[in-house]
Amino acid sequence: MFEHDPDRGRAIIDVLNGNSAWRRPIWLMRQAGRYLPEYRKVREEAGSFLDLCFNPELACEVTLQPLRRFDLDAAILFADILLLPMALGQRLEFRKNEGPVLDSIRDAGDLWKLGNADYLKGLEPVFETVSRVKAELPGHVGLIGFCGAPWTVATYMIEGGTSPDRGFSRIAAHRGEQWFKGLIDRLTECSIEYLCRQIDAGAEIVQVFDTWAGDLPDGLCEEYCFEPIRRICHEVKARYPNVSVIGFARGVGPRQADFANKTEVDAVGLEWSYPVRLASEKLQPNVVVQGNVDPLVLMSSTEAIEQATLNVVTALDRQRHIMNLGHGIKPETPIENVEKMIAVVRGFDGRV
Ligand code: CP3
Fold this sequence. Notes:
By secondary structure, the protein is of the alpha/beta class. Helices cover 50% and strands 12% of the residues. It is built from 16 helices and nine strands. The strands form two sheets. The chain has a seven-stranded parallel beta sheet. Strands 2-3 form a two-stranded antiparallel sheet. Helix 4 packs parallel to helix 8 (124-136), helix 11 (178-201) packs parallel to helix 12 and helix 15 packs across helix 16 (335-351). The longest helix is centred in the middle third of the chain and has 24 residues, at 178-201. The radius of gyration is 19 Å and the shape is globular. The two termini are 31 Å apart. Bound molecules: coproporphyrinogen III (CP3). Residues 29-34, 43, 49, 76, 78, 80-82, 99-100, 146, 148, 162, 209, 211, 328 line the site of coproporphyrinogen III.
């Protein structure tokens, strides 16, 4: 199914380990998804999004789909950050045009109602998906497992879904509510075990998604974004020294350098608004950077795609860079625009 050349090594792993890589690695956040007709077909066959996530055969299939179409360097497990709250006992539904809907947790009583579910057992199908993908991947492709960061997952658990401003969560953080701290601690501990089980099943890299990190002002950012992610990195790496962690603290802007220094992440995923010149000068000397083309560029013109892509690859040293978008690819993205972006990267690197 795939071309396989074991001698080339895995570029993404070489870059993360500071070794010389045979090419600049590329993967795309949300690379498996609705912009692919073959995904929509399997998704329909599965019934619902959650049925798809908990069906290892089909989840493995959709994980591999983007790799058949595009010349990518990593596969990311097909699952969702909200499977953990579900496994912890929270009701979760994905409604059409509405996104995720959960019971909301707004006090100690609600937190207590979660109970003591054997959450790792509920997540077994996810680990099974990882093993299946691992068995099918060609030698040059890395396998990424993931979880949501405690703050981001907590916002969905508290708000009861996607919300315009994560208001209840931010107020709870400012107040330093005990139940809120308890929720962050619980998510931190469970995320460690969840990632370690993904690693046991075959994940070689893990990414921690803190989509809403930019909500948190200085002190709170340290306490609820940096510190939980530091604990996750520290513990995962203590148990698995060969595994690399990518931290995606979306929206922390000028604090990306602090995020890298304080958490032990091997790479920082950058939002599209982060200036690539600063990434080159301030971040790359200390940490690998990932990103950061605006996903909406992929819905514009060929010229704009070329320009935006070149802007990123010319600024960033390819031995310390993982090419990606600054956030997930949109469902409306034309497939040929994804091909164009990848071709521009390969073409540029081939010339230098
Ligand atoms: O390809 C991949 O990147 C791997 C799979 C993956 C999904 N979600 C699949 C998905 C990953 C890594 C995620 C992470 C995720 N999920 C995040 C963090 C990254 C980010 O995008 O900020 C967040 C916040 C979620 C929560 C979530 N999942 C929301 C808010 C939604 C609804 C909005 C939407 O895009 O539909 C989802 C659904 C979801 N997760 C889909 C997919 C492919 C779409 C489901 C469908 O088929 O209808």
